[in-house]
């Protein structure tokens, strides 16, 4: 069975979720483009969008309509070639509408797992829980005579563990999309010990067709992305706990969040990133990693405390940010949660005090948005960090310590055999986390 034949019947588990909907969209577009080739026009293509929520699936269909329309408008030249034999499609709008119809025609929203029993490929974007994933894989594998290939979007669970416990005999691969899948270019690809070469080749072809940047990771819990982020999280939290011995908790969070964003030229501070991912999600990923990596203490009592209070962060269905460590109003950070007061403290009440305590950034410090496309980025960053090291301020000291630790994390991922090389670590942070520079550098 070749690449195109295998994509004739595909299922996405968790299709209505944040990750699943993006995976479904990308796969639907790829399958539709294949189905429109002259040699495939008499073949049936089916993409099962499987989710337990009927309401979620209803929203998924609306999402697909909007996103496929946008995709069609961006590739009109390609679509004109695909529809060259359709004399009834004259105007651009005719072609766009036909493409939207053809893509949606492939997708079958269903709430029953049985729909995957005929599929050749199964993408899984269920909850980050090995028991749930193993149960799904086992059920499909037992009832599907086609010996399907499984793509798991897990960001932390070892693939070999899933392979063995679900008895998949190497027909599984870790294919970790970054959020949101339709926009993010990065995919971490993780092979289990017995992942077949045919499946690996198919996965790489699929990623290439989707124009993704592929970074391989060895099959170690957390892989490269969470292997770095979770340890960065632990350090940020420990710095807050240390500072809280001298300053109020809310001020400590403000300072470390500001340092990890403005002083390190990142798109968001460490606590804003934790909120974005979700405190409960981070807590669970840490537990997965901590239980599988001997000699590594990957746990945060502070996360436990916040989650136990029901403060979890994450996003609403419309993509807006839920409150976590930080409070958000109209997309802006306006407060920081105080465990002692059980309420959010307005940033406006502490900002000037904290900023004065941290000290100013070096003169002409680059902003994250401007540095990304600067052709002289390396020179600008080197000058910035040299100036930062010359400052005798608390903010500079905290930033250098943070940068040194994040560099050590990256180097240890290579040393411990998680990443193949330093460049792969840097690529994940540059591409998947939108950092302006890789953690392994000579700036500090």
Could you explain how this protein is built, in words?
Strand 6 and strand 7 (186-191) form a beta hairpin. This protein has 2 domains: 3-216, NAD(P)-binding Rossmann-like Domain (Rossmann fold, 3-Layer(aba) Sandwich); 225-432, N-(1-d-carboxylethyl)-l-norvaline Dehydrogenase, domain 2, CATH 1.10.1040.10. By secondary structure, the chain is α/β, with parallel strands linked by helices. An 8-stranded mixed β-sheet has the order 3-2-1-4-5-6-7-8, sandwiched between helices. Strands 9-10-11 form a 3-stranded antiparallel β-sheet. 50% of the residues lie in helices and 12% in strands. The N and C termini lie far apart (51 Å). The longest helix is centred in the last third of the chain and has 22 residues, at 394-415.
Number of helical segments with 4 or more residues: 18
Total tally of structural domains? 2
Secondary structural class = alpha/beta
Largest sheet, order of strands side by side? 3-2-1-4-5-6-7-8
Within the CATH hierarchy, at the fold level, what is the topology of the largest domain? Rossmann fold
Order of helices and strands: HEHEHHHEEHEHEEHEHHHHHEEEHHHHH
Could you give the topology of this structure?
Layout: H1 3-6, E1 9-13, H2 18-35, E2 46-50, H3 54-74, H4 76-82, H5 92-106, E3 107-110, E4 121-124, H6 130-143, E5 149-152, H7 159-165, E6 172-177, E7 186-191, H8 197-209, E8 213-216, H9 225-243, H10 249-263, H11 270-277, H12 279-292, H13 301-308, E9 326-329, E10 332-338, E11 343-346, H14 351-358, H15 368-371, H16 377-390, H17 394-415, H18 422-432
Parallel strand pairs: 1-2, 1-4, 2-3, 4-5, 5-6, 7-8
Antiparallel strand pairs: 6-7, 9-10, 10-11
Helix pairs in contact: 2-5, 3-5, 9-10, 9-17, 10-14, 10-17, 12-13, 16-17
């Amino acid at each position: 069975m070749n690449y195109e034949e295998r994509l004739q019947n595909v299922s996405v588990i968790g299709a209505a979720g944040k990750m699943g909907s993006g995976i479904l969209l990308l796969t639907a577009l790829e399958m539709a483009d294949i189905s429109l080739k002259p040699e495939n026009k008499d073949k049936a293509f089916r993409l099962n969008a499987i989710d337990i929520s009927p309401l979620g699936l209803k929203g998924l269909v609306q999402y697909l309509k909007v996103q496929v329309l946008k995709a069609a408008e961006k590739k009109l030249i390609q679509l004109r070639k695909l529809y060259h034999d359709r004399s009834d499609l004259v105007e651009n709008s005719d072609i766009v509408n036909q493409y939207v119809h053809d893509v949606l025609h492939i997708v079958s929203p269903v709430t029953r797992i049985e729909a995957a029993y005929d599929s050749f490929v199964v993408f899984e974007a269920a909850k980050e829980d090995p028991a749930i994933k193993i149960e799904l894989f086992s059920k499909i594998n037992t009832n599907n005579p086609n010996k399907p290939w499984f793509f798991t979007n897990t960001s932390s669970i070892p693939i070999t563990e899933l392979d063995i416990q679900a008895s998949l005999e190497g027909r599984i691969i870790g294919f970790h999309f970054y959020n949101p899948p339709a926009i993010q270019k990065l995919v971490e690809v993780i092979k289990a010990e017995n992942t077949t070469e045919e499946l690996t080749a198919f996965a790489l072809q699929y990623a290439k067709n989707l124009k993704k940047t592929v970074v391989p990771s060895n099959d170690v819990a957390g892989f490269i992305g969470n292997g770095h982020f979770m340890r960065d999280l632990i350090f940020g939290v420990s710095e807050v706990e240390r500072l809280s011995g001298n300053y109020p908790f809310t001020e400590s969070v403000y300072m470390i969040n500001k340092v990890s964003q403005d002083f390190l030229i990142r798109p968001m501070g460490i606590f804003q990133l934790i909120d974005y991912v979700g405190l409960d999600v981070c807590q669970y990923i840490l537990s997965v990693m901590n239980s599988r990596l001997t000699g590594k203490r990957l746990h945060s009592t502070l996360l436990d405390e916040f989650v136990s209070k029901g403060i979890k962060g994450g996003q609403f269905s419309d993509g807006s940010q839920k409150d976590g460590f930080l409070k958000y109003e109209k997309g802006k950070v306006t407060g920081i949660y105080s465990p002692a007061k059980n309420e959010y403290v307005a940033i406006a009440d502490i900002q000037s005090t904290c900023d004065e305590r941290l000290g100013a950034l070096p003169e002409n410090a680059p902003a994250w948005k401007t540095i990304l496309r600067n052709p002289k980025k390396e020179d600008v960053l080197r000058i910035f960090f040299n100036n930062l090291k010359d400052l005798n301020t608390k903010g500079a000291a905290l930033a250098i310590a943070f940068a040194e630790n994040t560099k050590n994390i990256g180097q240890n991922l290579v040393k411990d055999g998680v990443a193949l090389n330093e460049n792969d670590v840097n690529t994940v942070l540059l591409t998947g986390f939108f950092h302006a520079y890789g953690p392994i550098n000579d700036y500090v």
